[in-house]
Each structure stands twice: as C-alpha cells, then as structure tokens.
C-alpha cells in the first residue's frame, strides 16, 4: 500500500489508495546557483518521479518554501512557466529551507490507477480532483484584501476569501478537513496582544455556527466539537496566508471523517485562557476512512503533554516527544477509541512530513532524530517560529492505513 523511495535531492512515497495512485514528493535543489536554476532542478526532479510512476501531469497541491518575501513574485513566475496549463494549487511559504537552498518543494500528485480520476485546474489557487464519487478541492495561497490591517481583520478577510473560492466550486466551508494558517511574526505582539492569539480570536469568530463535516462522524454525539485538522505556524515578514483541503462526499455515505484527539494531550480547543483568550480551534488530526482504508491528516504537533510544554530548551527531546505524540495520535488504540477499529497506523505508515524548526542551529539535531525514527520518509525542514516561545519544533504529516 505504501512504498517509499529516497534518492539524491528527492524523497517520495507512493500510496495505492481507493484504486488511485497518490505520489507525495519532496525535492530540494542538488546544487547552487540562481533561484531559477535551483527551482528548475527541484521541479524537474519531481517531474521525473511522476514520469517514472506513470502519474505525469497529476500534481494537484504544492508548497514551495522560500527564504524571503521578495523572492515570491519571481518564484511564482518560474513555477507558472514550468507548469503551463497544469498548475497545481500552490502556496509560497516564506520559511527558509534548513539546508540553505533558495527553495524546497513539496508536491502531492493524484494519478490514474484502476479507478477513474478527473483533475480540474482553476489557476494556481484551486484544483479539484474527483474519483470514486469523492470530490477534493485543494485551495492554496489565500491572502487577505490589501486594504485590511490587523491580524484579526486580516484573518477574517482571508477566511472569507477562502469560503468564496470553495463556494465558486460548489463546496461549503463546512467541508474543510485540513487547513494551514501561515502567519508572519506569529509570536510577536500587535497592540499589546500576541499575533497568534489574534488569529485564534478571529478563527473562533469565523467558525461560530459552522458545523464541520456534519453527518460524517459515526458515533459522535451531535454536541461534540468538530474542527478541521490544522497547522498554525510562523513565517518571515508580517503577512498572512491560508490553504486548505475540502471534501465533498454527498454520494458516499460510507465515508467517515473523524476528528482525532491525542490521549496524552488536552484538546487544543479546551486550552485555558492563559494560552490564548480564545482557544485554537482545530483537531489534532482528521481521519478519513472509506471501507478498508484510512488517510490521517496530522495537524501541527509539538512537545506538549496535557496543555504544558515539555523539554523546554532541548530540541532533541522536543523532537522525540513530538514524534511520540504523533505515534500515540495515529495508533490503533486511539483509532479504536474514536470508533475506527483496525485503522490505526504506525510511524512507518506516514507518507510525508514537514518539520518546522525555530532555530537553524537545531536543524541537524531534529533531522537526526527524525531520520532515526522515520527512515527514508520524505521530509521538508524549514525555519519557522512555532506558536509558543518555548516550543522549538513542530511536525505535521499524513499517514495511511488499511484494515487487516
């Protein structure tokens, strides 16, 4: 079901899921040179992977990590020229790649297998993929209106724009299963309030009255709080950018979208006011099951037990704890407790991860821990502020499981 390959400059996973081949790839330039030279090296590497796997032209969602905001326009032009009419939904994330390159690329492809796959592209902000009576909308690079200031208002503006992008393609905002919130200067203050706390305040206000994935959680009481899996992470500058994956499954009553909480962590939406006056509204993960298969979208995860940071100042211990938290989150024991027996996963069932490191000096330490625990898994390492000053590492990813 899951095959992983690592070679010079690229790591990728191939997942045969729902009779469809999924290819998850990470590429970094193998040499130096200009942004254009490095970008073409990484993009051609990913292109070669898809040609080899028989999924050419199938990239639907892409994140490009770059060190400064000034490089975004040039990077976008390079990528648009490279893909032409086959633009993926692409986010330009201003987080310096840890290895010192001018960019790193993470790409998700959905290619033809035994089942029929239809890909509809709407520029580099939205791509719809339809297969097996499931319609996925990948949405990227959503920013607030230029005339809006302040994190709270910018978040409301960007989420409103995202809702509009989804609505234009016939999908409600309540169908969002995975979100990314990239916020510049995330731990800095704005008007005496931390910027991340303002994002949480806006997220709480915007989500009010939204019943996420209603009817898709077998066994959950109607009063249960349901939110998408999400990452809230820093980036360079002071901007805000959102991305998401939404899923329409009206003709598939057998599909279950189950939010997962970690048995060793307090639910983020139950955090006390000392962490944020309005708690972060996200699930620790979202498990999407269909028959014998499950895809688990793992939210940004850090070295937290209960609601407290553990191992402050120790990047190695924080990385180990973060992986322990992910291991518990996706475990068979936890999936069974959430009503999905037989669909638990292990760390070896991860298909790809991103590792956000606060300090460049901790990169090699975090990388060594991840390689020791995860082997040749495709990984992106980028420099980014985590939402608490005492957190040094955050990890997100995707895991896949099959009922035995």
UniProtKB/TrEMBL annotation:
Organism superkingdom: Bacteria
GO molecular function: deaminase activity
Positions of the Chorismatase FkbO/Hyg5-like N-terminal domain: 122-245
Annotated InterPro entries: FkbO_Hyg5-like_N (IPR049368), RutC-like_sf (IPR035959), YjgF/YER057c/UK114 (IPR006175)
One GO term describing the cellular component: cytosol
Pfam families xrefs: FkbO_Hyg5-like_N
Protein family membership: Belongs to the RutC family.
Protein name: Aminoacrylate peracid reductase RutC
């Amino acid at each position: 079901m899951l095959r992983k390959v690592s070679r010079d400059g690229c790591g990728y996973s191939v997942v045969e899921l729902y009779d469809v081949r999924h290819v998850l790839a990470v590429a970094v330039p193998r040499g130096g040179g200009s942004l254009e030279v490095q970008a073409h090296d990484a993009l051609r590497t990913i292109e070669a992977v898809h040609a080899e796997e028989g999924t050419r032209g199938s990239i639907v969602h892409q994140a490009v990590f770059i060190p400064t905001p000034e490089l975004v326009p040039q990077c976008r032009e390079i990528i648009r020229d490279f893909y032409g009419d086959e633009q993926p939904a692409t986010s330009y994330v201003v987080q310096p790649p840890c290895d010192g390159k001018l960019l790193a690329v993470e790409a998700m492809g959905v290619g033809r297998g035994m089942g029929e796959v239809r890909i509809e592209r709407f520029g580099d902000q939205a791509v719809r993929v339809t297969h097996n009576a499931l319609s996925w909308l990948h949405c990227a690079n959503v920013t607030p209106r230029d005339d809006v200031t302040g994190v709270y208002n910018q978040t409301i503006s960007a989420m409103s724009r995202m809702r509009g992008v989804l609505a234009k393609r016939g999908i409600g905002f309540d169908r969002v299963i995975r979100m990314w919130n990239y916020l510049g200067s995330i731990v800095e203050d704005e008007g005496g309030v931390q910027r991340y706390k303002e994002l949480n305040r806006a997220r709480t206000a915007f989500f009010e009255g939204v019943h996420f994935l209603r009817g898709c959680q077998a066994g959950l009481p109607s009063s249960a709080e349901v939110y998408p899996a999400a990452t809230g992470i820093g980036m360079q500058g002071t901007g805000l950018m959102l991305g998401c994956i939404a899923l329409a499954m009206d003709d598939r009553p057998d599909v279950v979208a189950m939010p997962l909480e970690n048995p060793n962590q307090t639910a983020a939406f139950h955090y006390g006011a000392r962490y944020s006056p309005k708690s972060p509204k996200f699930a620790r993960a979202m498990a999407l099951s269909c028959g014998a298969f499950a895809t688990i979208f793992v939210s940004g995860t850090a070295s937290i037990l209960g609601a407290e940071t553990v191992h402050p100042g120790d990047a190695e211990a924080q990385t180990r704890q973060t992986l322990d938290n992910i291991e518990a989150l996706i475990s068979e024991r936890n999936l069974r407790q959430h009503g999905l027996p037989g669909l638990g996963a292990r760390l070896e069932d991860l298909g790809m991860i991103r590792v956000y490191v606060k300090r460049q000096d901790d990169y090699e330490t975090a990388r060594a821990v991840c390689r020791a625990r995860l082997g040749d898994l495709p990984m992106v390492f980028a420099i980014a502020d985590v939402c608490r000053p005492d957190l040094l590492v955050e990890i997100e990813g995707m895991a896949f499981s099959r009922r035995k």
